[in-house]
Amino acid sequence: MEALIDEAFRAVPRIGFLPASQRRHVDLDQPLVLAAGQTCSQPSTVRRMLTLLGVRAGDRVLDVGSGSGWTTALLAHLVGPTGRVDGVEIVPELAAWGRSNVEATGMAWAAVHLADAAVMGLPDQAPFDRILVSAEATQVPEDLTGQLAEDGRMVIPVRGRMTVVERHGQEAHMVESSGSYRFVPLIVLPRGRHRGG
To answer: Active site includes 41?
Structure first.
């Protein structure tokens, strides 16, 4: 898996997903500012999340909090043209910019959508084989585990710990929680609804 991720990082360089003002910092392993308080995660964190996610060629993937579109494009490279990646982003200007960045890669099997503030993920397009969440939750959101396919996997930061959740049958179980990470918050709306970005 590591070799495939290395190849994805070479094929989809981070610099193409950064504002001009941040490109001079592209070689730094740290989060970089995008807009509206959002960030592009540091490469080592993205690499860790992709390793835990275990994306396979042909997978259907949901990317929650897609930001500039970098993770969406990395995932698209990993799933290849037989797969599908849909990113969702709550900040309108970021969603539009991320969409154009992903379109510029020529990987037509990937897209970025403006998130519906009252809906988490893309339930109408579920189930997904893999879900990547780049926003920190206070608990594992059932709205997303319900969008996982059988034997699906989600990677999400929960209270600063990188958490892996797998779904088998009707149940979703946390199988790993490790590290110490900081992300923008996954915003919880009334009545158990959520949004992230």
So the answer is: yes
